[in-house]
């Protein structure tokens, strides 16, 4: 642990950086480029100057809780113990930086409540500025934000350590965990503690996901069952994708219509496909109606959930290619058209230029992303002129 004088000097130096009209590369190196970049984004976000607490949202209790929420049920007592013994407040956030669960020591309880570092608190960078929870999701790395590195002055007395929570099977980032205390207790081991808490949740995920299906439908389609890649035909992947989108199940006729439409394919052919899939999934495929009995997650479902929650950047990051580009299923084609329409609408609300540029790397013909980037980038920026030429072509 640093002594009080060293910590005070650190605060004073940060304040000098905050008051500076521009930060040199040397300043950025001393402060950390991720913090400097976050400050710049926070300034551009036009956050109300008098904002002293995060916006609150009422969390809907899902009919089918997320894997992260389910895993928390298995390890929350361990996490509560860590928060209480370390005199910290511990928070778990979803992929959009909204807190879904907290545990606090008595010392931090009132402070956490006063700034809405509680369940339902929205800690997205564009809402509250620089903070460890949002920064860790942005960089997908462990992050520490000390004292007045935070954008909101109401949390300048805090130091926060955060680490992303990564799905052990799919390697998708599912959320983030944050440990926070007062700045005088800053400790270089804080990040290790946050990473340890993330690993506790990841271990709980492994336990919870013993019968678990993960479907990738963007770019190169792939299905994982209990962490192992299944060897499937494109048609079988289409069937699983349809069933993932229809968790209530489908009759044989409805599934046939969704998969083949008006194509002349016999019911017997579909029955044979279902029989093979049941063998591959070890009985995790129900009938009458046909439905998946394993826990199902998918990149396209995560994208849809991100759009529903207004997490535009998360949705664009997840969308790494065309959804089942070769499918002829009328149901899946219609769903893809709907998703692309929603993504296009979301793009015109996006504010992160780096996220939009990455989206263009996956979708070179995304003229909506080009138009939004032209709106966001200064006319003096060299990329701005390139984008104008790209649009004209």
From TrEMBL:
<dbReference type="InterPro" id="IPR016032">
    <property type="entry name" value="Sig_transdc_resp-reg_C-effctor"/>
</dbReference>
<dbReference type="GO" id="GO:0006355">
    <property type="term" value="P:regulation of DNA-templated transcription"/>
</dbReference>
<dbReference type="GO" id="GO:0003677">
    <property type="term" value="F:DNA binding"/>
</dbReference>
<feature type="region of interest" description="Disordered">
    <location>
        <begin position="1"/>
        <end position="21"/>
    </location>
</feature>
<protein>
    <recommendedName>
        <fullName>Transcriptional regulator</fullName>
    </recommendedName>
</protein>
<dbReference type="InterPro" id="IPR029016">
    <property type="entry name" value="GAF-like_dom_sf"/>
</dbReference>
